[in-house]
Amino acid sequence: MDIRSDVLRKIRNRREGYSLDQAFYIDQDYYKLDLETVWYRDWLFVGHDCEIPRAGNFFTLQVGDYPVVITRDRQGTVRALHNSCRHRGSRVCSQHKGASAKLVCPYHQWTYELDGTLLFARHMAEDFDKSQHSLKKVHCETVGGYIFICLADEAPDFSPYRELAEPYLVRHRLGETKVAFESTIVEKGNWKLVWENNRECYHCAANHPELCRTYPEAPSATGVQGAKDDPVIAGHWAKCEASGLPSEFRMSPSGQFRLARMPLIAEAESYTMSGARAVRRPLSADVKESHIGTLLMFHYPTTWNHVLADHAITFRVLPLGPELTQVTTKWLVNEDAVEGVDYNLDELTHVWTETNDQDRQIVEENAFGIRSPAYEPGPYSPEDEGGVMQFVEWYCTFMEQRLQGDKQPLTRVA
């Protein structure tokens, strides 16, 4: 069976306003098609400039079958390279993060410059051409302190995202922050279930007592419609925009990425149990205003974010299998903030550490039920799950457009 045809048929026949067919959440071949159609062909958030502040700093990640290393070269440029030695394919960098003057393959010591150029390969033939055996490059772009990569041979235009996001991010100066804490969890559910859960707060009151102290449950704050008609949100936008902080809801025509600055509940300024700031030192000296709420930034398929006055929380989604998803959360603070003086780590991380674990349990129970032979797509709440419907619509439209342009069939594994 041609999987592309099967997926296209189900996308075209799906019932609008309902969840997807079971195969989209559990099938190995559907997962493989997701990788090839979405994850290997579009821009993916991988990390932050501040994680590699100096030449020689690097971090690694795995996207499907692709190991990748992100480095900063001697000219200060952020680079992304395929983490596969041009000799016999061994991983060159096996650590999660580190620093090195050169990139040296541990297998046979082939040695690469920080930009991937091959410098040294011992005992090779006289006609061996080093210039033809550099580490393969991965498309890499940075904006507002965020690093994105694209594994495709030809990357989509990054400029629409840059033009939309940069004005919202510039005053937060996330390139001048540091990671105060990093957490990685693995959720036993498909990556789309992770996103669907994120895109609504229909479940929040019953499941997120810590988050609900400060984050509004209103669909107008979480979804994609109704915000401008909400007087609290409209007033918040007007106040922030007047102080030079872009805040109004803006979304790309494709629906793939969007930004908006949302107010927190009452007088809350941060995601803490009290609502008070978790960090005494502001995230950026350029943002002196109080009660700016949270800048929500989404970019499918890899990241959602909260940028506040005192810290930022960034989330990275990576698929590990048809029913396995890695979610990495990073808490960013001012680079000069001192733990134990300017912030208490438990206070800083408590709300989202608890919320992440609660979401993990929700996704896993969701996935468990979807495996049932009795499962069939169910209706979304138009009032509370508009954000979920928008995500599913983006995914289906994205897949359909890409698959229509693909000529080579992908056959189901026997």
TrEMBL record:
Keywords: 2Fe-2S, Iron, Iron-sulfur, Metal-binding, NAD, Oxidoreductase. It holds the Pfam family Ring_hydroxyl_A. GO terms for molecular function: 2 iron, 2 sulfur cluster binding; iron ion binding; oxidoreductase activity. It comes from the Bacteria. This is Rieske 2Fe-2S family protein. Its cofactor is Fe cation. Residues 43-149 form the Rieske domain.
